[in-house]
Amino acid sequence: MDLARVDKVYSKYVHSRKVIPTTGIGRSTRDFMTVPVNPPEIRRAGFTLVELLLSMAVMILIFALCGTMIQSTQNILGNGMKKIDADAEARLVFDRLSVDFASLIKRTDVDYIVKNSLQPQPGNDNIAFFSKASGYYSTNPDPAPRKTVSLLAYRVNSQSFQLERLAKGTGWNTTSSGTPMVFLPATLIGTWPSIAVSGTDSDYQVLADGVFRFEYCYILRDGTFSKVPYLPSHSSMNGWQDVVALYIAIAVLDDRSRKLVSGSSSLGAVAAAFNDFQLRDPALPDPSITYPPITQWEAVINQPNFAAKVNLPLKAAQAIRVFARTIPVNNLPADSSL
What we know:
This protein is an alpha+beta fold. The protein is built from 8 helices and 10 strands. The protein starts with a helix and ends in a 10-residue tail after the last strand.
């Protein structure tokens, strides 16, 4: 190695540094400590104002998207729960009606409260009949052998707009507990005035608090829909002989959406918007065809201005659902062996 060259390079290095002597005497140049005359500056990393503003804008955009997604999810879940609640109420009502009508007592010598030409029942319908389904007794049942008979009735309360069911336990004769079953010429209203649609009978119990509209019509033996329970060739029910089934339609507004309605008067206006069953509805595509009530009601709620027409909040109007079911009436000869 060329020592002269090394000394020359080292001398230049030493002259460019600040020499700090160490303790001791007689030491060579290499024994001194050297430090840089101008130590290099340490650059510290940071963000500019533009970078900060840009990152904040991105974060705000992400938060807005997340909030929108959360709100959308909540709306979907809320609508789903409303639909589930309405479906559950409709199923409860139709199942109860099916059980009651499966035990319907069809006799020519008993009275019924039904829709007919003399009682067209505008608005919400009501119905009352005797059935072998269980009812409530004011006293303990008589221990003597007997057949269970009940007076059943359905109506929509005109104040609360909730579907109510009445079930009075009766008996076939006066030896049974409670008021016995009555036969013509005695009538249901004459015997139990409080079961009328505007009555205050304590045996009325809320069956479905979301049902605010109740409508039914008859399916006759010839397969036609009718507002009277007999064929044109007959003039009376005669023990339901002409009726194959009842076609029942209900309109439901769940409890959450009911809170958006200001009061019973507003709900009454909504119920009035659902027309009574019509054999010919000019609002439907073919007025010459008899459409069932459910089709006529769907045409009403599908109108673009339905919410404004009934003065109802849009969310509440969108939550209204209509259901229908055909309830068989056990198309058998009138009971004569009971």
